[in-house]
Design a protein that fits this description.
heterotrimer; A: 2 domains; 11-stranded mixed beta sheet; 16 helices; B: alpha+beta; 2 helices; 24% helix
Chain lengths: 475, 70, 488
């Protein structure tokens, strides 16, 4: 049994195709571990394994996938980590989940997350925090903390998460796994319970880069139900690069400079990885992203603004929690949202409402969207000289539970390395680069829009050379 | 709550120091226009399905306190 | 002690019209539009505002929007955006309405006397039903929502404040309705709710160019009620100002039963809608192809164009030209009558102006809202009757009787004239001269008046002859004969 869960998804798929394992066997092995986990990584686990019908013939061979709570899964609780949607079972399934199921990856379970994807530690969940399998007194990162912990701990072969301001990459870094944020528009958002519409993207959390490529290949594509989705040019290639000859890497001073607030252990791991890249043939130079220092501010205006509107539908009328239905309408609205939303969500709704309000729109939301334009320009300019921009994924390793919950600003600062890529809508991946005091460190590579195949290839070459072993987290 | 928000706002307000004259705001991230669909009917959800989630099913619809009631 | 003169006030009225488009599906999803169907059978994740749902724009709604813009002479925006308009209400499932804000589909334009400010697209709210005795919102405790209507495509047309009277507030929307009906983009039926008109009303001293504070009148169910509501509000505002009190900006409901105006409780808690561009949609670019396609679907002649043609080419007076153009069924009947006459050896082409006199007469007899095409009077029959009058084959009075017969039984006016003996009596006929002599003899006082120059006194003399001839003699002829006899 334990041998099974040590296989990467791609390896397991091969064994299934070779008729060495039955899909049901694999599913059951994971299902049992998921149902029994002590990390609080799941909000729902499948009761039964699906029948073996023809999975071996599908591209993903029946390898089951854990899916973040905010993806609508028909008939299965989809709560986006919030009490206001506790027990809500949607009448339809998110496009990306349906595509992956169609490709042969059945639903293993729904993973815990920060409420409405707002958070960097999974401590904002309405269903309790998730624990980092490397050290259970620490956070797994967020908002896709449950997905990251599940993959790292061998509770799922692979998982689907979402990234709005680092919510796939940062937990991947803190849990020592791979996390990819695709180009905005590459994957459909239909059926993803929305946080920030112009930033949210579905993406894989996996044990290695090959698995990430495999999921991405079947997740991308224009969806007629999502006006902001695009046809991915070309097919996502499975990575194979052994070296980085001719690859130009740019290190942005504004983000990685000494004043950046990056932990020494993280900086060390980053620099070691950069040196490794050079040995693999890459050229590395400093690059400039002049507006990157303001990305966090812009993000914390744009995302809450969109969220304040996206969360207005939770009004106790058609679904979800209702409190005070016997009182008047306004009381029902306010009591429901008072009880149903956690503190962070309320904070961001207030921030977002303020940023959009008359008299403040220009200074806040309007200005933030201009900063966004500049950030996108900065990246475009940088990509004229560089193939990829590299940074540490997170400024710190997994911090202790409760250590930043009193200081929202400190919590927000966790995202400063990931947020610029989100605002620009470009592709970015985090791979484990090593350990610092026993805790994983993530290395981020960002490439231009639709550069995923090349990005995955470069990440693969680095991954092979790094040789990170995450098996201890699965024990 | 308001102390925390103030702190956040103080940090955020630094973007007003930037010179952004003449910079167009990003209103859409992708360079696509006219994502339109043909005027063709698609199946609707069965009523019992949608009412199953309703906090207060009432008269084949969604019951709420009347807005006019004080 | 001088009292400052009370200024004359003029009303300044602008209209906001919402039109439900007659597409097959909703604005942002593929649910069918509802026509009094059972509640909540036309919904989906999108129009129900379920978590994770997304909108997709209906191409036909854009097409209809462009058609409306072209018909109203607007400028079609090269690139327009959708915005979110944020507020809470049970009939608004997402807690925001997807609408258009500062980059609407169309700007500018004109229809008749009124300039158009803008035309934009948005989605309709759902229907909130109230339990309780009257079914109205006040006094009910529980309400329930039917989402069938939610998401129906709406076009909002906003005029400049160019209307200047309650009458115009009744007439101009009728012109708009006829135009939209001709475009085939909407049922434009006020009773069914596919046409809704709100009025913004203010007053100002005559001669002033500044605008006074305006109030908004909503939820009027017919053009007649709109006229009355506007009239009532104008009076109310003038009354306030004359007492030195200011007009407050508010939303009012007009109750035609009592001719009263009541302030509506504002349905949104705040008026700050916090508009921002809809991130789930992409911009709409009106390509040359789209505009050409819209133009191709416009009718050959719009009501304003028809009115101009009737006045300028056919010589109808302005009011009649507008009446026939703005009420399509009258104009169509008129055209058929014109076409039916002439080209036939035995009948001359009817004079359009003479013909145009007889259509209102016909309408009077069949009911002012009826379609003449549905009556017993065939267009060629009316044309023939008009021709007979013009040729003095029958007097105007007699012709009215013939028309009444035609309405009752249909048929050919010549046969009716023959059967009823209604042919014109002219001076050449025997007996008319005698009747004139008798009239003068019967009323010598009147005759003297006429001789001494008071032409008004001729009335009774003419009347006498008319009665004796049962209206078959032409009034003009009679008058001429009388003057003749009296030596004038």
């Amino acid at each position: 049994m334990s041998g099974l869960i040590d296989l990467t998804a791609a390896a397991a798929a091969e064994r299934i195709r070779a008729r060495e394992i039955a899909p049901a066997e694999l599913f059951e092995a994971y299902r049992a571990r998921a149902a029994d986990n002590d990390l609080n990584a799941y909000t729902w686990v499948a009761d039964v394994s699906p029948a073996d019908d023809g999975y071996a013939e599908t591209p993903l061979a029946g390898v089951p996938i854990a899916v973040k709570d905010l993806f609508c899964t028909e008939g299965v609780p989809s709560q986006s980590g919030s009490k206001i949607l506790e027990g809500y079972r949607p009448p339809y399934t998110a496009t990306v989940v349906a595509k992956l199921a169609q490709a042969g990856a059945p639903l293993l379970g729904k993973t815990n997350q920060d409420e409405f994807a707002m958070g960097s530690s999974n401590e904002n969940s309405g269903f309790g925090p998730v624990f980092n399998p490397w050290d259970r007194s620490r956070v797994p990162g967020g908002s896709s903390g449950g997905s990251a912990a599940a993959v790292a701990a061998g509770l799922a072969p692979w998982a689907l998460g979402t990234d709005t301001g680092g919510s796939i990459r940062q937990p991947a870094a803190l849990c020592g796994i791979v996390g990819l944020k695709p180009t905005y528009g590459a994957c459909s958002r239909y059926g993803m319970i929305a946080f920030a519409s112009s930033l949210d993207q579905a993406g894989p959390l996996t044990r290695d880069v090959t698995d990430a490529a495999l999921i991405l290949r079947h997740a991308v594509g224009r969806d007629r139900r999502d006006s902001t989705s695009l046809e991915f040019p070309g097919e996502i290639a499975l990575p194979s690069a052994q070296e980085l000859k001719g690859i130009r890497l740019g290190v942005p001073e504004e983000l990685t400079g000494a004043a950046g607030g990056i932990e020494p252990g993280v900086r060390e791991s980053f620099e070691a990885t950069v040196a490794l890249a050079e040995r693999l043939g890459a050229s590395v130079e400093a690059c400039r992203l002049p507006h990157a220092p303001h990305a966090l501010s812009a993000y914390y205006l744009i995302a809450p603004a969109e969220a304040s509107a996206n969360l207005a539908r939770y009004d106790a009328v058609r679904y979800g929690l209702r409190v005070g239905g016997d009182a008047d309408l306004i009381t029902m609205y306010s009591r429901t949202r008072e009880v149903g939303f956690g503190a962070e969500v309320k904070r961001r709704i207030m921030l977002g409402t303020y940023a959009l309000s008359s008299g403040y729109y220009d200074a806040y939301y309007g200005t933030a969207q201009k900063v966004r334009t500049k950030i996108a320009e900065d990246f475009a300019t940088a990509f004229e000289r560089f193939d990829f921009i590299v940074t540490p994924t997170s400024p710190c390793t997994a911090f202790e539970l409760g250590s930043k919950t009193d200081d929202p600003l400190a919590m927000y600062l966790n995202d400063f390395l990931a947020v610029p890529m989100s605002l620009a809508g470009i592709a970015a991946i985090s791979i484990p680069s090593g350990l610092s005091e026993g805790l994983p460190v993530g290395f981020q590579l960002a490439g231009p829009a639709f550069s995923e195949s090349r990005l995955l290839d470069a990440a693969y070459a680095l991954e092979q050379a790094i040789g990170f072993d995450g098996s201890s987290a699965r024990a | 709550m308001s102390a925390e928000l103030s702190k956040v706002l103080d940090h955020i307000e630094k973007i007003s120091e930037l010179d952004l004259d003449g910079v167009p705001p990003t209103s859409h991230v992708i360079d696509v226009v006219n994502a339109l669909r043909p005027d063709e009917p698609e199946p609707s959800l069965p009523r019992e399905v949608i009412l199953a989630a309703a906090p207060e099913p009432l008269h084949d619809g969604f019951g709420v306190p009347s807005p006019g009631a004080a | 002690m001088g009292v400052p003169p009370v200024p004359d006030y003029e009303p300044v009225i602008g209209l906001e019209i919402h039109v439900q488009l007659s597409t097959r599906t909703k604005m942002f999803c593929g649910c069918r539009l509802s026509f009094n169907d059972p509640p909540n059978i036309h919904t989906c994740p999108t129009c129900l505002g379920l978590p994770g749902a997304l909108p997709v724009v209906n191409a036909r709604a854009i097409h209809f929007g462009i058609m409306i813009g072209l018909a109203l002479g607007c400028e079609i925006a090269e690139r327009s955006l959708f915005h979110r308009k944020n507020y809470f209400y049970p009939d608004l499932p997402k807690g925001y309405q997807i609408s258009q804000y500062d980059v609407p589909l169309c700007r500018g334009g004109r229809l008749g006397d009124v300039r158009i400010h803008r035309v934009h697209l948005e989605e309709d709210a759902a229907k909130l039903n109230h339990l309780g005795a009257s079914g109205r919102i006040h006094g009910s405790d529980r309400s329930w929502v039917d989402f069938n209507r939610g998401g129906t495509p709406l076009v909002e047309i906003v005029t400049e404040p160019d209307l200047r009277s309650p009458e115009q507030a009744r007439e101009w929307p009728a012109l708009l309705r006829t135009t939209l009906r001709q475009l085939g983009v909407s049922d434009v039926n006020m009773e069914e709710g596919s046409l809704r008109v709100d009025a913004n009303v203010s007053v100002r001293p005559v001669g002033s160019t500044e605008l006074g504070t305006k109030t908004e009148l909503k939820n009027m169910n017919s053009f007649r009620f709109l006229e009355r509501g506007v009239r009532a509000e104008i009076s109310r505002q003038i009354g306030l100002l004359e007492h030195g009190e200011p007009v407050m900006q508010e939303t009012l409901h007009y109750d035609p039963a009592g001719d009263t105006l009541t302030a509506l409780r504002s349905k949104e808690e705040a008026h700050d809608y916090r508009y921002f561009p809809e991130p789930d949609l992409v911009p709409v670019v009106a390509t040359e192809g789209m505009i050409a396609a819209a133009r191709a679907d416009l009718p050959a002649e719009l009501p304003v164009e028809r009115a101009a043609r009737y006045e300028n080419e056919l010589g109808l007076n302005a009011d009649t030209a507008r009446l026939f153009a703005f009420r399509t069924e009258l104009g169509d009947y008129f055209e058929r009558a014109l076409a039916a006459s002439g080209g036939n050896g035995e009948q001359r082409q009817v004079d359009p102006v003479e013909l145009s006199n007889w259509i209102p007469q016909l309408v009077e007899r069949i009911g002012s809202d009826s379609d003449p095409a549905g009556s017993n009077v065939a267009p060629e029959s009316l044309a023939r009757l008009a021709t007979m009058v013009k040729a003095k084959e029958v007097s105007r009075d007699a012709a009215r009787e013939v028309l009444t017969r035609l309405v009752e039984e249909g048929g050919d006016p010549r046969k009716i004239v023959e059967r009823e003996g209604l042919g014109a009596i002219t001076a050449e006929d025997d007996g008319l001269g005698e009747l004139v002599d008798r009239a003068i003899a019967a009323d010598p006082a009147a005759a003297d008046q006429v001789r001494s120059g008071n032409m008004k006194a001729i009335g009774p003399l003419v009347g006498y002859v008319m009665r004796e001839t049962k209206g078959r003699a032409d009034g003009g002829e009679i008058t001429r004969l009388i003057r003749d006899r009296l030596g004038l």
